[in-house]
From TrEMBL:
InterPro entries for the chain: Aldolase_TIM (IPR013785), Indole-3-glycerol_P_synth (IPR045186), Indole-3-glycerol_P_synth_dom (IPR013798), Indole-3-GlycerolPSynthase_CS (IPR001468), RibuloseP-bd_barrel (IPR011060)
GO biological processes: L-tryptophan biosynthetic process
Pathway: Amino-acid biosynthesis; L-tryptophan biosynthesis; L-tryptophan from chorismate: step 4/5
Family statement drawn from the similarity comment of this UniProt entry: Belongs to the TrpC family.
Protein name from the UniProt record: Indole-3-glycerol phosphate synthase
Leading EC class: lyase
Taxonomic lineage: Bacteria, Pseudomonadati, Bacteroidota, Chitinophagia, Chitinophagales
HAMAP family: IGPS_B
Keywords associated with the record: Amino-acid biosynthesis, Aromatic amino acid biosynthesis, Decarboxylase, Lyase, Tryptophan biosynthesis
Lyase listed as a keyword: yes
Reaction it catalyzes: 1-(2-carboxyphenylamino)-1-deoxy-D-ribulose 5-phosphate + H(+) = (1S,2R)-1-C-(indol-3-yl)glycerol 3-phosphate + CO2 + H2O
Biological source species: Chitinophaga terrae (ex Kim and Jung 2007)
All copies of domain Indole-3-glycerol phosphate synthase, residue ranges: 5-254
Gene name of the record: trpC
Amino acid sequence: MKNILAEIVAHKKIEVAARKEERSEEVLRQSSAFNRQPFSLREFLQRPDKTGIIAEFKRRSPSKGLINGEATVEAVTGAYCRYGASGLSVLTDEQYFGGSSADLIAARSINQIPILRKDFVIDEYQILEAKAIGADVILLIAECLEAAEVARLAKFADSLGLEVLLEVHSEPQLEKITAHTHLVGVNNRDLITFKVDFNRSCELAPKIPADKVKVAESGISDPAAIVTLKQAGFQGFLIGECFMKESDPAYAFEQFVTTLNALQQKI
Ligand SMILES: O=C(O)c1ccccc1NCC(=O)[C@H](O)[C@H](O)COP(=O)(O)O
């Protein structure tokens, strides 16, 4: 089986090396967004006036191919924000997801909620980029980083005031959690086989340290799943395809939230 994650990481190393040649760290540090005070995703996920949903803008993916080639980042993320998203996730990987830094910059310019830079971070330079384009949170994927790399990158992000979402898929990966990991995401999608197992989140939840905010990721398409995941201790729900696959992702999000609110009123 083709290991897409290994392929993405190999490509990322080449991309990052090229970008370092184009723009120095000094230039990134001079960006106007670099000195803004980031929003805290941890805090937004605990606000009762929000849904707990981290709504993702994702044009395509290795598992699904093209998801939405028409949607604009401004219309979609603006609606996500208006209808109660606790945070936004914006893909910035171009090669495999059709995203870009420009997408995140556009989302930042119109939304006042935390934004996760959704990418494959392997180098401090990408964390400086995240800060320079106005992100508040970075993703570290345990599957593609050694424990020492997670520790080093998380500490660096934390030193810049960015929060760290560490994504895990199996119990041994929980050992990579450090003091600089603010949120732990359980990816229900196996990034090698693409198989989605919704039970993965519920199995790992009790094993995540109590001081970390728990985020369930991938394959969530039913508001009832959020009720179940909340009962399992999750406060964040990263959802992309369920909204982006629709011709009107904004409407899909609004309908999802309406159903979720109705379900929660019955409990
Ligand atoms: O989605 C993929 O195909 C994929 C492949 C390789 C690495 C990462 C991948 N996806 C990233 C994600 O985990 C999702 O974008 C995110 O959790 C949202 O999932 P979904 O709601 O299922 O779109």
